[in-house]
């Protein structure tokens, strides 16, 4: 199976080493027109095209074939290189994203430099879009390919950019995705440093007790994973730590990390007394604000690392806890410390935060009976605020309404935008099944509780997820359906009602009638938002999408890599994912990093800027316009005894965008493999009166 | 207008069947395939939704509950196997129990043990009551009313009829009010169309079984006419009404002095002939219906609730015992079992009739009321409200 991702592939062992064809040797071009079965051949006259191109200068072979990517197709190329002395190859076929690598490897196998190959997209750019007019499509094919031939005449052998790489990876985030990625990489021999912003491992998973689709206790799952991570000698963990600065490029990133002290020694024993002594009470984020905690705290009993920490933000330094300190068990004067590490690549696994509805959305923040799904999960948890009893605000719960899509699939103009002006127009994916899972759990543990499930759409998309919906029906959960423009509302119950709250829903399963739901509790199935990563976006120059989740470079073909080589994504930092998907993404991220670093060196495409020192006058225009950091800079040279400034490219940081080329007033910069001369020759060829066309069109 | 949700209703209805209805996700396939559902009267989806939400008032006021004849097409096409057809039947049982304010129907529907005890006890009491006034059993010829005086049976019948009529009327009025209110039935509307609607209901729908006959035979290969669902149902109804008429006529003949009750008449005597032919219809209908239910021959015969069996079996026993009596009358020698058969027959018929308002039998008048409201074509409540607010 050929690699179709369009990414650089390291040369395989046992391959013929590419010959360094001299740039001055006479180009002998082989041209190949692929039928792609019927895809191209039904529209473009491939034989005519090949025939026309055969008449162009320097073309020594011109063929058409049914499937160039097939083994016999590739053999045509390798045989022509060996037998006919072909030293430049042009193939007109599918998109270059599909088979450029295939043909590069074929060319390379025959002993030619792989960059002496050029790919023309005759399928996506010609036959598929012009199937109504085959004659013109044939003309277009000839023109496109003659431009390819023009470029081929000027092609020179290139070498990929090779960089030394530290076999050391950084993982940012100690949630389930970060832990999984760290473990996978460490097991393949990489050194891994994991930094976690909070003082505890486990992330959001630790706050969930009962998870779909296995109905397991999330904390048990987590404990197994954390134990393996802790036992892995290749992994170093820093909790309470954040990345504050980063420099460098794939293979050699310098990362500056700031770590908050715990303020409490590992062997500190008088935990309960110290907690009791602390006078500070702040909302407990582990219980999503349902309860309070002290400024010396731990999120839950079996947390990792074990023991308590000081919440420096809220600690008043009143020193009441020091009474139990036992000579330095508690150290309130500890300061954060910073240190630097060198890594070859990194995995960003910063995870998500649940959507926090603004005051008043569906009664949230106004009525105590309106809570969010993560809060309900804490209520249902055995170590939660009610010890797992289904009661809230002093009331046992008899009727319960759950409202889907709160903070997801929002519509501009209907929903209140986020502080940055955006609405969450995406589906948060995990909330439907999580809601149904909680609903089923309630119906099974508390069969007297009635549940109204108020949804816009039910999207139980994953394997086994639909079972939760089926089960919900069997569990007699009453479904109601609203449309986004008519969001449900909560009002105070009338006199004589047994429930404190009335939900009002325009139910489209009941022909749009307004239904009143007498309820004790309204649960908002809030969506998923990325953890705040603005600082990381700046530090690493990675891009968030318009949904503010971190963006991959290609959603289908390169789903975990960012546009910055060496930085990959794992888990919910990239978009709403459940635990299973986060682990899958983490595994993919780990293998991408391993692929980059395991050789100890990194190969990048050679299409980077190249300065002609003869022409460069040191104007610095290129440095000013370059969008990349550290990709081009001025250096002082001595030319005939005179100190001059000349531009110098750092190939590892250059992404070949070509902005410097257009800015240079002296035409001193070109992008290797895509020089201005190449473009000019191609444009000339595209617009030329090609004699070969006579008698064809 | 808004509905108040109450999840207890579905639980309540499920005491009357409809075990699978919780699986319904309101797709509406049932309504789409239903041959009787129209744009204005949509069911079963609408009725199922009312039950799921627990809108008691709307559910009990829906005439759609009764305009369904349970062809089973919805159940056959339901993608969730929620059995909407059986749900409609269960909801009708629930409605019968709800319209009856005495609470007897609920007991008879939901408790098989109490049901059977009650029936046996009622029959035994009836038999005992008649037996206390018994006379001789002449053996030269079968003179039934020398064993049990005719006036005892007549008085018992009239007393029973009054009780039944009162209970039935109470229930029917109860229902008519709810259905009428929910469907926007107004005095003016009734005055406008009452006679036409009566014809439409009684002649076309009830006696003619028009829609049942034309729309509800949904098997791909229509069976012969005498095996079609509507004909089996009609046989029972026509047979029952024929016997009811024959009994009434016989009584009238007695009152006007043409023929005293119990006088021997030949089989071709018109009233006797009417009774015999009607009995044959009833025997045919009940027998086929019982066999179909035993064999689970089609969708509606698959789920047999206690009330379905009681109604059919009581009808069948009444019919068979009636024919046994008729045979005894025409035997050359008067058999003694003939007298006992009379006691048995009257006791079973008493069970059937006295309990009519509280059993499946009650569908006869509830369905008629619903069909009448339907035929009156009342203005839908929503339109009424709209018109009122426009004024």
Describe the structure.
- The complex is a heterodimer of chains A (697) and B (391).
- With 697 residues, chain A is α/β, with parallel strands linked by helices.
- Chain A has five domains: 29-159, Rossmann fold, CATH 3.40.50; 168-260 and 336-351 and 531-601, FAD/NAD(P)-binding domain, CATH 3.50.50.60; 271-324, no CATH class; 353-529, FAD/NAD(P)-binding domain (3-Layer(bba) Sandwich); 609-671, Alpha-Beta Plaits (2-Layer Sandwich).
- Chain A contains 16 helices and 36 strands.
- In chain A, strands 10-7-6-18-31 form a five-stranded parallel β-sheet, covered by helices on one side. In chain A, strands 20-29-23-24-25 form a five-stranded parallel β-sheet. In chain A, strands 2-1-3-4 form a four-stranded parallel β-sheet, sandwiched between helices.
- In chain A, helix 11 (466-474) links the parallel strand 24 (450-455) and strand 25 (478-481).
- Chain A is globular and about 95 Å long.
- The two termini of chain A are 37 Å apart.
- The relative contact order of chain A is 0.12.
- Residues 1-21 of chain A have low confidence and may be disordered.
- Chain B is mainly alpha-helical and 391 residues long.
- Chain B folds into two domains: 8-99, no CATH class; 104-375, no CATH class.
- Chain B has 20 helices and one strand.
- In chain B, helix 3 crosses helix 7 and helix 7 (84-99) packs antiparallel against helix 8 (104-110).
- Classes of the chains: A alpha/beta (697), B mainly alpha (391).
- Chain A binds chain B through residues 399, 450, 452, 470, 473-476, 478-480, 504, 507, 509-511, 513-518, and chain B through 1-5, 7, 10-11, 22-26, 46, 49-50, 52-54, 80.
Q: What spatial order of strands do you see in the largest sheet of chain A?
A: 10-7-6-18-31
Output mean pLDDT of chain B: 89
**What's the CATH class of the largest domain in chain A, please?**
Alpha Beta
Oligomeric state of the chains present here: heterodimer
Distance between the termini of chain B: 18 Å
The 3D shape of chain A can be described as globular
| Main beta sheet of chain B | none
Output the number of helix runs of chain B. 20
Q: Indicate the structural class of chain A.
A: alpha/beta
Provide the number of structural domains of chain A.
5
Report the C-alpha radius of gyration of chain A, rounded: 31 Å
Number of distinct helices of chain A: 16
């Amino acid at each position: 199976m050929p690699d179709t991702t369009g990414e650089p592939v390291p040369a395989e062992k046992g391959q013929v080493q590419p010959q360094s064809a001299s740039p001055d040797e006479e180009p002998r071009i082989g041209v190949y027109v692929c039928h792609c079965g019927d895809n191209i051949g039904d529209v473009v006259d491939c034989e005519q095209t090949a025939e026309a191109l055969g008449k162009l200068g320097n073309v020594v072979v011109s063929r058409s074939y049914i499937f160039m990517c097939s083994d016999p197709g590739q053999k045509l190329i390798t045989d022509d290189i060996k037998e006919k002395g072909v030293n430049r190859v042009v193939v007109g076929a599918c998109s270059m994203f599909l088979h450029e690598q295939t043909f590069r490897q074929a060319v390379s196998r025959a002993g030619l430099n792989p960059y002496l190959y050029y790919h023309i997209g005759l399928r996506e750019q010609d036959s598929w879009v012009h199937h109504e007019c085959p004659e013109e499509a044939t003309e277009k094919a000839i023109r496109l390919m003659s431009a390819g031939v023009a470029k081929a005449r000027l092609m020179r052998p290139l070498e990929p950019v090779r960089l030394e790489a530290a076999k050391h990876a950084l993982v940012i985030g100690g949630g389930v995705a970060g832990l999984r990625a760290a473990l996978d990489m460490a097991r393949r021999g990489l050194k891994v440093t994991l930094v976690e912003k909070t003082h505890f491992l486990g992330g959001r998973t630790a706050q969930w007790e009962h998870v779909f689709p296995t109905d397991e206790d999330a904390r048990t799952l987590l404990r197994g994973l954390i134990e393996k991570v802790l036992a892995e000698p290749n992994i170093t963990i820093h909790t309470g730590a954040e990345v504050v600065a980063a420099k460098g490029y794939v293979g050699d990133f310098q990362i500056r990390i700031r770590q908050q002290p715990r303020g409490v020694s590992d062997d500190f024993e008088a935990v309960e007394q110290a907690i009791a002594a602390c006078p500070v009470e702040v909302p407990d984020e582990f219980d999503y604000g349902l309860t309070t905690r002290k400024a010396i705290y731990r999120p839950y009993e079996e947390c990792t690392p074990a023991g308590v920490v000081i919440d420096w933000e809220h600690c008043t330094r009143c020193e009441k806890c020091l009474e139990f300190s036992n000579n330095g068990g508690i150290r309130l004067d500890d300061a954060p410390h910073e240190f630097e590490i060198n890594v070859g690549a990194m995995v960003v696994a910063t995870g998500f935060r649940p959507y926090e509805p603004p005051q008043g959305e569906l009664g949230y923040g106004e009525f105590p009976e309106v809570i969010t799904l993560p809060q309900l999960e804490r209520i249902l948890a055995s170590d939660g605020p009610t010890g797992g009893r289904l009661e809230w605000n002093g009331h046992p719960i008899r009727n319960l309404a759950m409202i889907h899509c709160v903070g997801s699939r929002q519509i501009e103009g209907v929903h209140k935008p986020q502080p940055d002006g955006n609405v969450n127009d995406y589906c948060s994916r995990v909330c439907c099944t999580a809601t149904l899972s909680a609903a089923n759990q309630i119906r099974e543990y508390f069969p007297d509780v009635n549940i109204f499930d108020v949804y816009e759409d039910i999207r139980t998309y994953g394997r086994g997820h639909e079972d939760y919906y089926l089960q919900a029906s069997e569990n007699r959960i009453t479904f109601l359906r609203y449309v986004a423009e008519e969001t449900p509302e909560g009002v105070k119950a009338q006199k004589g009602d047994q429930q404190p709250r009335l939900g009002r829903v325009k139910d489209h399963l009941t022909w749009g009638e307004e239904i009143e739901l007498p309820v004790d509790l309204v649960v908002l199935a809030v969506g998923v938002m990325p953890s705040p990563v603005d600082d990381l976006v700046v530090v690493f120059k990675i891009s968030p999408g318009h949904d503010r989740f971190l963006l991959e470079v290609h959603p289908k073909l390169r789903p975990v890599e960012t546009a910055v080589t060496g930085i990959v994504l794992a888990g919910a930092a990239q978009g709403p994912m459940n635990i299973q998907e986060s682990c899958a993404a983490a595994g993919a991220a780990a293998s991408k990093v391993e692929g980059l670093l395991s050789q100890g060196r990194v190969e990048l495409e050679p299409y980077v800027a190249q300065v002609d020192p003869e022409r460069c006058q040191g104007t610095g225009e290129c440095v000013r316009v370059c969008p990349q950091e550290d990709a081009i800079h001025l250096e002082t040279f001595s030319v005939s005894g005179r100190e001059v400034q000349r531009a110098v490219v750092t190939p590892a940081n250059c992404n070949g965008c070509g902005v410097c080329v257009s800015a240079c007033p002296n035409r001193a910069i070109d992008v290797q493999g895509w020089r201005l001369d190449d473009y000019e020759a191609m444009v000339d060829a595209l617009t030329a009166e090609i004699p070969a066309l006579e008698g064809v069109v | 207008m808004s509905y108040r949700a109450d999840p207890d209703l579905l639980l309540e209805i499920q005491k009357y069947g409809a075990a699978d209805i919780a699986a319904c996700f309101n797709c509406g396939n049932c309504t789409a395939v239903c041959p009787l559902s129209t744009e204005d009267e949509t069911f079963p989806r609408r009725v199922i939704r009312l039950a799921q939400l627990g809108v008691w008032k709307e559910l009990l006021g829906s005439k759609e509950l009764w305009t369904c004849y349970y062809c089973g097409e919805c159940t056959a096409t339901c993608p969730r196997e929620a059995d909407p057809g059986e749900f409609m039947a269960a909801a009708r049982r629930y409605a019968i129990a709800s319209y009856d304010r005495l609470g007897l129907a609920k007991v008879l529907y939901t408790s098989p043990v109490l049901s059977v005890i009650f029936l046996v006890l009622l029959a035994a009491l009836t038999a005992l009551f008649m037996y206390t006034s018994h006379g001789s059993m002449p053996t030269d010829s079968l003179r039934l009313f020398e064993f049990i005086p005719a006036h005892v049976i007549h008085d018992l019948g009239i007393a029973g009829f009054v009780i039944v009529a009162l209970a039935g009327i109470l229930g029917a009025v109860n229902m008519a009010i709810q259905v009428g209110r929910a469907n926007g039935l107004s005095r003016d509307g009734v005055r406008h169309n009452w006679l036409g609607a009566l014809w439409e209901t009684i002649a076309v729908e009830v006696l003619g079984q028009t829609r049942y006959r034309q729309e509800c035979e949904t098997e791909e290969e229509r069976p012969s006419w005498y095996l079609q669902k509507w004909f089996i149902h009609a046989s029972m109804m026509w047979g029952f009404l024929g016997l009811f008429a024959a009994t009434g006529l016989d009584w009238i003949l007695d009152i006007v002095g043409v023929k005293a009750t119990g006088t021997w008449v030949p089989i071709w005597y018109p009233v006797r002939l009417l009774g015999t032919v009607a009995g044959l219809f009833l025997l045919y209908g009940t027998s086929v219906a019982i066999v179909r239910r035993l064999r689970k021959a089609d969708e509606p015969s698959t789920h047999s609730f206690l009330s379905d069996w009681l109604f059919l079996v009581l009808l069948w026993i009444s019919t068979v015992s009636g024919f046994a009596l008729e045979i005894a009358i025409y035997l050359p020698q008067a058999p003694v079992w003939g007298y006992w058969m009379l006691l048995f027959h009257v006791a079973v018929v008493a069970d059937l009739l006295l309990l009519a308002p509280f059993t499946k039998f009650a569908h006869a008048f509830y369905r008629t009321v619903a069909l009448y409201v339907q035929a009156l074509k009342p203005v839908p409540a929503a339109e009424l409200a709209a018109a009122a607010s426009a004024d």
